[in-house]
Design goal:
The protein is an alpha+beta fold. It has two domains: 277 residues, no CATH class; 38 residues, no CATH class. The chain contains twelve helices and ten strands. The strands form three sheets. The protein has a five-stranded mixed sheet, with helices on both faces. Strands 1-2-5 form a three-stranded antiparallel sheet, covered by helices on one side. Strands 8-9 form a two-stranded antiparallel ribbon.
Length: 330
Amino acid sequence: MKEDGRRSVLKTDEIDEPEIEYNKPTTTTSPSSSTIATTTTLEPTSEETTTEAISHNAFTKAAIYTDYSECSEIGRSILLRGGNAVDAAIAASVCLTAALPHRASLGGGLTMTILNGRDCMTVNARETAPASARAEYFTQRREEAVLGGKACATPGFLNGLYRAYESFSSKTIPFRQLLLPTASICERGINVTADLAEELKRHRSMIINDVSMKNVFTNQNNYTLLGEDDIMHCHQLAAFLTEMTEYADPLDYFYRGAMAEAIAKELKEADLNDTDLYSIQQQVWEVRQAIADPLFVPESTHIAISMLQQEAVWKLDDKLKQGIKFDKEA
């Protein structure tokens, strides 16, 4: 594996576990709560593939990309155990909530675009405003729309991951096993990236004045902010993920059980209640034709659009094979 800081792309020719199943999807994951899962054929290869080969389409088995190397490793391990692109993307995405909490969070939302053969679907599980929220309230209170309890929305992240698992996973790996690797690194400790260290500096005052954040993002001996390459422990997140694995349906735990009550109590200022959590829904869109404006697509726009373009190329290729001719003036 070659790394550029914390970013990594894995050499897929290093896969040597005998249990690997071929013809499984590959995945690319972004840290902004958006996941792109693309399917390609995994074939054995003896060619060395490194980060320099990205532009040459040299990944003949699989490629997993995240902005944190250990999250890439977690996704890779899922593929090696027979999981598909969605399984690996789920595991890597959960990892990013621990490693890059300023960019991915169980308290936020996600979109996941899945390309399976020539079928393209998008799971839209973005966070939603509580039912009692009113846009007019923020007209003269723009700061409250960004910071504080009023800025919190009904989290869709976990709901989207689990619905994607139900509909598109390989079913060879239980959902709980996609969560436990992250619980493990939370307890072991996570190296703070330069990007996260800068974000902590930006929000120093807020962190120091919040007990929960101070316990995670500061050195416990003197309560100074963690810096680049310091070790961050996320014991509460580890406990949460571990407890959730004990439920047959993790959504019951998060959206309808004791955790839902705790979230509603914590976010009472946001006018968010357990009914908002219970009513959370996700949408699955089958992509047939789309007009995309990147200004209004919040995550991984360039990757999603390139996948849609590939879909259009395939459809054109099908028409050409059918002998359909096109007017030169068209």
